[in-house]
């Protein structure tokens, strides 16, 4: 649905936040994402996305503006291991460089790692599943992430958001 947040959607968010459930904006359209970020009283999470390299017709990917909205809520944009359509040979180093750009644009406090299980999308070359997180950590260190930023990216940022939902 791309028409924005409905009254029923607002009621669902209210109830979710009352129950301590995290509001995950993965798969939200741009309009709905903006409405959710403006409406939520707590940080939102995009549990699995990646940068939209073109800036338009992004589908599941996020533009810089959308990532900034999520960060402005105190939330986290979780990057997933997906090869870009125009660059099917994306490597772990390419992914690390994309994350470095995200760090520069929205801050290391607002990025994390995420996936929806891995079915049906082209993976980053050299990254098959979570057993390859060490390779990603090494690439992130190589491009300039500090140990503290790496820890935040690998889970502390998401944990911070989850903590905001505890009753």
What is the topology, as strand order, of the major beta sheet?
A: 1-2-3
Separation of termini?
30 Å
- DSSP strand tally: 3
Mean of all residue-level pLDDT scores: 88
Radius of gyration from the alpha-carbon trace, in angstroms:
16 Å
The poorly predicted ranges are none
The ordered H/E elements are: HHEHEHEHH
Shape: globular
Alpha-beta content class:
mainly alpha
Helix content: 40-55%
**Number of H- or I-type helical stretches:** 6
Largest sheet: 3 strands, parallel
**Could you tell me the strand content as a percent range?**
5-15%
Which properties best describe this structure?
single chain; 167 residues; 3-stranded parallel sheet
Report on this structure.
This protein has six helices and three strands; from the N terminus they run ααβαβαβαα. The longest helix has 19 residues, at 147-165. The model has no long low-confidence stretch (mean pLDDT 88). By secondary structure, the protein is mainly alpha-helical. The two termini are 30 Å apart. Helix 4 (92-106) packs across helix 5. It is globular, with a radius of gyration of 16 Å. A three-stranded parallel beta sheet has the order 1-2-3. Helices cover 46% and strands 7% of the residues. Helix 4 (92-106) links the parallel strand 2 and strand 3.
């Amino acid at each position: 649905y791309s028409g924005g947040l409905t009254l029923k959607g607002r009621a669902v968010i209210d109830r979710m936040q009352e129950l301590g459930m995290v509001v995950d904006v993965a798969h939200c359209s741009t309009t709905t994402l903006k409405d959710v970020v403006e409406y939520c009283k707590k940080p939102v999470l995009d549990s699995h996305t990646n940068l939209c390299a073109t800036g338009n017709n992004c589908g599941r990917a996020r533009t810089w503006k959308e990532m900034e909205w999520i960060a402005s809520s105190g939330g986290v944009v979780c990057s997933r291991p997906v090869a870009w359509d125009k660059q099917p040979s994306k490597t772990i180093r390419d992914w690390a460089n994309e994350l470095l750009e995200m760090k520069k644009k929205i801050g290391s406090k607002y990025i994390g790692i995420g996936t929806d299980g891995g079915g049906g999308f082209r993976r980053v070359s050299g990254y098959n599943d979570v057993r390859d997180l060490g390779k990603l950590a090494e690439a992130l260190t190589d491009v300039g992430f500090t140990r503290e930023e790496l820890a935040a990216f690998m889970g502390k940022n998401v944990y911070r958001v989850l903590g905001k939902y505890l009753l």
